[in-house]
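2024-03-11 09:14:02 INFO worker-7 job=invfold-0412 stage=load source=structure_tokens
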């Protein structure tokens, strides 16, 4: 069993920055992929950034155009402190959503970038990010 606690959300103006944190506890021995999803009001949950057990990161391939986070978001794992961080810069109103940390229970696919929300067994409670224009 893995327990995830999300924190760090808040309200910022466009162009601002936030760092989301995910505190990880429990048995992560079999965990291969961890990452962040976000869900805006009335929309489906979408993958934002992922990291695998080798430290390879990938950023939401499904997020295109003005919703893309590439170059603006950075994901890092702090194994010593059992934490996962999502640094978000140059925030846009389109980034407004509830953000969720997620972890799998075992490797589901060849690459984290191939994962969908259904592949993750454990979820944080979510932390709200609101970006005003």
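2024-03-11 09:14:09 INFO worker-7 stage=emit residues=133
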């Amino acid at each position: 069993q893995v327990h995830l606690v999300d924190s760090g959300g808040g309200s910022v103006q466009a162009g601002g920055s936030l760092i989301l944190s995910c505190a990880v506890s429990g048995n992560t021995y079999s965990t291969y992929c961890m990452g962040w999803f976000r869900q805006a009001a009335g929309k489906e949950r979408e993958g934002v950034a992922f990291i695998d057990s080798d430290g390879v990161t990938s950023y939401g391939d499904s997020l295109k155009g003005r919703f893309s986070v590439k170059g603006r978001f950075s994901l890092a794992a702090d194994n010593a402190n059992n934490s996962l961080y999502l640094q978000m810069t140059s925030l846009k109103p389109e980034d407004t959503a509830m953000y969720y940390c997620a972890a799998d229970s075992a490797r589901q696919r060849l690459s984290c970038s191939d994962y969908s929300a259904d592949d993750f067994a454990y979820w944080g409670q979510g932390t709200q990010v609101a970006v005003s224009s």
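2024-03-11 09:14:09 INFO worker-7 stage=report msg="The chain has a mean pLDDT of 91."
2024-03-11 09:14:10 INFO worker-7 job finished
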